[in-house]
Specification:
32% of the residues lie in helices and 27% in strands. The protein is α/β, with parallel strands linked by helices and 262 residues long. It is built from seven helices and eleven strands. Strands 7-8-9-4-10-11 form a six-stranded mixed beta sheet, sandwiched between helices. The protein has a five-stranded mixed beta sheet with strand order 1-3-2-5-6, with helices on one face. The structure holds adenosine-5'-triphosphate. Keywords: ATP-binding, Nucleotide-binding, Transport.
């Protein structure tokens, strides 16, 4: 078995056991993921860090149920994941909003009619307030900035109350200041909602800044190399010696040569 981490959990929200996935490209098999195992506690923020091509998106797509795996299993609240489900909300790098719908309509899109119109509007308003977009409900996506679009994308998922939020490099396309603002937003949302979050990134600082635990991945095939527990209070002081020491340790891990393939 590969690295197995996060087992000291009372009630795992999400469990991944012995997960492998390959693709056939031009008649050649590419092993994207090999024997990945980890667990995520309810309310935990897990960062999955690795270089381009290590299988981060493939892993997230499997957790989301968009992609089938070859071996192993994924359990969400003890039930096998066999496709997409409302208990797993996904935010992508690109905002993927409906351009013809307003901000409020985008956020309310997945809400069920059972809430009634007033109930839906109230939920949407509350969520817009939570992501700092009060007053922007009537705007179309083309009239707001990239960072605001990502806030809408986040609100659209969170309004459905998912048990786990899955994020695929959600801030990679944003400029540095907007990215820092989004980090702040995610930290405050997580503190308010105690939301379970799993995000993949190739940005070392982002991983150490946001996560309770960071899993560092190997490439070819994608495997978990090591786990780092981040026991630093939030919001994290990026200049604190403990933060810098952890960043150095994660960086050194990323720079280690890949182990020989078995
Ligand atoms: N649909 C696919 N068909 C064939 N090969 C694929 C497919 N999706 C991913 N791969 C291969 O699987 C490996 C992992 O790709 P993946 O996109 O998951 O990595 P990543 O870590 O997310 O990379 P990046 O950070 O560049 O987005 C790569 O070798 C990639 O070429």
């Amino acid at each position: 078995m590969g690295a197995r981490v996060g087992e000291n959990t009372a009630a795992p929200c999400l469990q991944v056991e012995g997960l492998s996935k390959g693709f056939v490209v031009n008649g050649r098999r590419v092993q994207a993921l090999s024997d990945i195992s980890f667990a995520v506690r309810s309310g935990e923020v897990l960062g999955i860090l690795g270089p381009s091509g290590c299988g981060k998106t493939t892993l997230l797509n499997i957790l989301a149920g968009f992609l089938a795996h070859d071996q192993g299993r994924v359990l969400m609240n003890q039930r096998p994941v066999s496709g997409p489900g409302p208990e797993r909300g996904v935010v992508f790098q690109e905002d993927a909003l409906f351009p013809w719908l307003t901000v409020a309509e985008n956020v309310g899109f997945g809400l069920r009619n059972g809430d009634g119109r007033a109930g839906r509007l109230a939920k949407v308003e509350a969520m817009l307030e939570m992501v700092g977009l009060t007053g922007y409900g009537r705007y179309l996506p083309r009239a707001i900035s990239g960072g605001m679009k990502q806030r809408v994308a986040l609100a659209r998922v969170l309004v459905l109350g998912p048990a786990a939020l899955l994020m695929d490099e959600p801030f990679a396309a944003l400029d540095a200041q907007t990215r820092a603002d989004m980090h702040q937003l995610l930290i405050s949302l997580q503190q308010r909602l105690r939301q379970t979050v799993i995000f993949v990134t190739h940005d070392l600082e982002e991983a150490v800044k946001l996560a309770d635990r960071v899993l560092v991945m190997d490439t070819s095939p994608g495997r978990i190399r090591r786990e780092f527990v981040v026991e630093l209070p939030r919001p994290r002081d990026l200049d604190a010696p403990e933060f810098l020491a952890l960043k150095r340790a994660v960086h050194a891990c990323l720079c280690e040569p890949e182990p020989p393939q078995s």
